[in-house]
């Protein structure tokens, strides 16, 4: 006779009302989890998870991870942290606190509960890389006191904390280094390149290229990334990462702008603005480790992902009366 589990697995998602967090909460609910979303709504919104609120398996609490949290769960996905340069530089001290104090609090919770711990790290740990593409073995090239340091060094320290909890307390950790990811539910004023360009193109406003647009990024569609989160969390405990999670197809920012103008049929012109300081010149993940250990390969190519993202933003901007319905 089939044995029934007494209860579902319970997951805590910090930053669960943000762009990636909301997609993760949705996926975990589909996979049969009880999901507790904790967010201070700094960049995330209730709207992002409004469609989940009717589920009896979903709960949301306003909580700042720089404060301790006492709950009972089996797995923790630690995503809390603003990810857009504009937002993380707005209150840089809070950004470092979120990464470092937040990691200490959530790792402490995981230690008490003996819970598995996933940490959302970033390609920013490589800084402005001198090795291309970036493998996990590369230690990076980060300016420790520049404008991006609150985020880059905060995330580096959070990785250190994960590994020290792992070595010192036997905590089961999983570190994903996320490369630029995009998709529906990015905040329209988020300031990141994909959302900026799509909103500008749909409104026929000038597209703001920082620098000469020759800097590169590799863009991963959100659904592919969430698959990787789940695979990583469920991988053998011996596999801690860090593991690069991103789509290795690399584009210049100028190429991205041209593609978005073409796909939206926009009449936007390009305008060139100064390159922000410490803006990495090139970025592409080496994902051999993720392929080998997780059997993961992002399948959604840029045009396909942009199509879905553009459709979502078009609908949002129409609802808000920013653009006319067609
Ligand atoms: P986001 O800004 O949409 O989401 C971050 C969420 O964390 C928001 O809901 C915000 O309100 C919440 N938050 C911020 N500070 C908090 C605090 N102190 N306490 C509780 N909640 C807090 O960004 P995102 O793109 O969804 O990023 C999620 C995570 O993934 C972040 O840790 C980010 O560093 C990491 N990441 C994302 C990308 C990407 O391309 N999207 C790339 C690398 C790393
Ligand atoms: N960028 C740009 N115009 C914008 C927003 C961003 O040219 O309106 C550039 C930015 O300078 C960077 C790249 O696009 O070189 C990616 O920026 P984003 O903020 O999305 O992420 P990053 O990878 O820099 O953290």
Give a quick account of the main beta sheet: strands, pairing sense, barrel closure. 7 strands, parallel
CATH superfamily caption of one domain: NAD(P)-binding Rossmann-like Domain
Rg over CA atoms, rounded to whole Å, is: 19 Å
Query: At CATH's second level, what is the architecture of one domain?
Result: 3-Layer(aba) Sandwich
CATH class (first level) name of one domain = Alpha Beta
Global outline? globular
Keywords:
326 residues; alpha/beta; Rossmann fold; seven-stranded parallel beta sheet; two-stranded parallel sheet; 9 helices; binds nicotinamide-adenine-dinucleotide; binds uridine-5'-diphosphate
Task: Kindly describe this structure.
This protein has 326 residues and is an alpha/beta fold. 37% of the residues lie in helices and 17% in strands. The protein has helices at 19-30, 85-90, 92-113, 149-169, 193-202, 222-234, 253-264, 288-294, 302-319; strands at residues 10-14, 34-39, 58-62, 75-78, 116-122, 173-178, 181-182, 207-210, 216-218, 220-221, 243-245, 250-252, 270-273. The strands form four sheets. A seven-stranded parallel sheet has the order 3-2-1-4-5-6-11, with helices on both faces. A two-stranded parallel sheet has the order 7-10. Strands 8-13 form a two-stranded parallel sheet. Helix 3 runs parallel beside helix 4, helix 5 crosses helix 9 (302-319) and helix 7 packs across helix 9 (302-319). The N and C termini lie far apart (57 Å). 46% of the residues are buried. The mean pLDDT is 96. Bound molecules: nicotinamide-adenine-dinucleotide and uridine-5'-diphosphate (UDP). Residues 84-85, 180, 192-193, 196, 208-210, 215, 217, 253, 275-276, 279 line the site of uridine-5'-diphosphate.
């Amino acid at each position: 006779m089939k044995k029934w589990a007494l209860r579902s697995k319970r997951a805590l998602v910090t930053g669960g009302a943000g762009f990636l967090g909301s997609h993760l909460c949705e996926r975990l609910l589909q996979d049969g989890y009880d999901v507790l979303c904790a967010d201070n709504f700094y960049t995330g919104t209730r709207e992002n998870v409004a469609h989940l609120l009717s589920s009896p398996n979903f709960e949301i609490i306003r909580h700042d991870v720089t404060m301790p949290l006492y709950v009972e769960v089996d797995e923790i996905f630690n995503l809390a942290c603003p990810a857009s340069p504009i937002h993380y530089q707005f209150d840089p001290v809070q950004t470092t606190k979120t990464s470092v104090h937040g990691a200490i609090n959530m790792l402490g919770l995981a230690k008490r509960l003996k819970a598995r711990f996933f940490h959302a790290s970033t390609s920013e740990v490589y800084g402005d890389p001198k090795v291309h593409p970036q493998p996990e073995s590369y230690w990076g090239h980060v300016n420790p006191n520049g404008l991006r340091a609150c985020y880059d060094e905060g995330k580096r320290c959070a990785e250190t904390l994960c590994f020290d909890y792992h070595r010192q307390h036997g905590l089961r950790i999983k570190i994903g280094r996320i490369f630029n990811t995009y998709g529906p539910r990015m905040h329209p004023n988020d300031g990141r390149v994909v959302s900026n360009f799509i909103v500008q193109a749909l409104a026929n406003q000038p597209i703001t290229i920082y620098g000469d647009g020759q800097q590169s990024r590799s863009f991963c569609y959100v659904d592919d990334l969430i698959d990787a989160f789940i695979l990583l969390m469920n991988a053998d405990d011996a596999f801690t990462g860090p593991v690069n999670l991103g789509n290795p197809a690399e584009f210049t920012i100028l190429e991205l702008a041209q593609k978005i103008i073409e796909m939206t049929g926009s009449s936007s012109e390009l305008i060139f603005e100064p390159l922000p300081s410490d803006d990495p010149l090139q970025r592409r993940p080496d994902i051999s480790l993720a392929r080998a250990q997780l059997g993961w390969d992002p399948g959604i190519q840029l045009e396909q992902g942009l199509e879905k993202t553009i459709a979502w933003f078009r609908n949002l901007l129409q609802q808000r009366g920013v653009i006319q319905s067609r």
